[in-house]
Amino acid sequence: MSPFLDVKDLKIHFPTDDGLVRSVDGVTFSLERGKTLGIVGESGSGKSVTSLGILGLHKGRGANISGEIWLDGEELVGASQEHVRGLRGKKMAMIFQDPLSAMHPFYTVGDQIIEAYRIHNKVSKAVAKKHAIDMLGRVGIPEPGRRVDSYPHEFSGGMRQRAMIAMALSCDPELLIADEPTTALDVTVQAQILDLMRDLQREFDSALIIITHDLGVVAELSDDILVMYGGKCIEYGSADDIFYRPEHPYTWGLLGSMPRLDREPTERLLPIKGSPPSLINVPPGCAFHPRCPYAERTGDKARTVAPALAETEGGHLVRCHMSPAERRALWENEIKPALETP
Amino acid sequence: MTEPQTQPATQDATQPARQGEPLLSVRDMEKHFPVTKGLFQRQVGAVKAVDGISFDVYKGETLGLVGESGCGKSTTGRLVTRLLEPTGGQVMFEGRDITHMSQGRLRPLRRDMQMIFQDPYSSLNPRHTVGAIVGAPFRIQGVQTEHGVKKAVQDLLELVGLNPEHYNRYPHEFSGGQRQRIGIARTLALKPKLIIADEPVSALDVSIQAQVVNLLEDLQNELDLTYVVIAHDLSVVRHISDRVAVMYLGKIVEIADRKSLYATPMHPYTNALLSAVPVPDPRGRAGRERIRLTGDVPSPLNPPPACRFHTRCWKAQEICKKVEPPLAELASGHRVACHFPENAPGTPDVPAAGKDEPVTA
Ligand SMILES: Nc1ncnc2c1ncn2[C@@H]1O[C@H](COP(=O)(O)OP(=O)(O)OP(=O)(O)O)[C@@H](O)[C@H]1O
Ligand SMILES: Nc1ncnc2c1ncn2[C@@H]1O[C@H](COP(=O)(O)OP(=O)(O)O)[C@@H](O)[C@H]1O
Ligand code: SF4
Ligand code: SF4
Ligand SMILES: [Mg+2]
Ligand SMILES: [Mg+2]
Question: Of A61, A101, B80, B139, whose CB has the highest number of CB atoms within 10 Å?
Answer without folding.
Answer: B80
